[in-house]
Amino acid sequence: MPVTGRARHQRLAGMTGLDLYIMMTFRTFATAGFAGLAMALAMPAQGAAFADVLDTPAQSSPLASKSLLQAVAKAGGRLVAVGQRGHIVVSSDGGKNWKQAPVPVSSDLTAVFFADSEHGWAVGHDGVVLHSANGGESWQVQLDGRKANDLLVAAMEAKAKAMPASADAKALSAEARRYKEQGADKPFLDVWFADALNGYVVGAYNLIFRTSDGGKTWEPWFDRVDNPKFFNLYAIRPAGDDIYIAGEGGLVLKLDAAAQRFKALAVPYNGSFFGIAAAAKAIVAFGLRGSVYRSDDAGVTWTQADAGLVATIVGATRLADGTLLLADAGGRLASTVDGGRSFRKLVLKQSMPVTGLAEIGDARLVLVGPRGVAVADTTAR
User: What is the DSSP letter of 321?
Assistant: First the structure.
């Protein structure tokens, strides 16, 4: 049976300080000072009238590409990065120059993904899902926390009505109502689309929605996940023909296509996984304190790997030759060409704290973090 709100608070009380800090901020900054700065910038000035970030467009800023950015993705020949206060910046020249795109909300954005050169989605706090049909040049709201709560309550109440004898259905319905009472405050933390129509968004406290029409409509999958403790869902990515979710508390889930349900896998680790990626013929999950686990058999068994990274691993990207590159919050990099069996360290010529990365080509990467966006060359060690 799903945990209650009281049990969730008891779970939080048992977490380590670092676990709790990362979970509450939902992204890892290099130091706690960056989180404090982001909070201070988000607070309204004393005496200023309250303006809901869901109703307030992102402000234009000449420093948008130099402020906190959380994720970056390739959109054909463009690069698109997203971050605090609804900032989205786009580069059409390999990261040399960036321009800010108009965004209809000022919620902090956490992830971005493009299914092709034109169709992309960005997600973030307050249950925001944004869509672009022109390579990141402009964005429209497809979902926010208010609508997401309504959809979740309607779906879970319908399930409870259809299954009156099910204690689990009743508990899910009660949890959905509790989410709505708490308001549009829960973030989506990752987004992935198989093509321009079919995709998922995942987030805090087991939030997961699916679309099959490019985001015109969204279906809650709150009841289709083996996650009875409502752990946070941090990342969703494919590997081979399968789709995986990585989350809090060592949670790794795999889509059972026949059952249309994400089923939990047995992983010998109880720390948080912040990402998951295909690596050669293997699947690699990574996260807290440099932890990496790999599977050669589609998630049946897992073994720990040593990437040589000491801080929390916050991002991954696949290079053109199939190499998987991991980055930790301190800007240290490690690559693997053999499915995570071995890693080699890479060195940034100019180090920076990192929250996300993407390949540009010619041994160059675009990196984002608390200092904004930067293009970096890498060398092997």
Answer: T
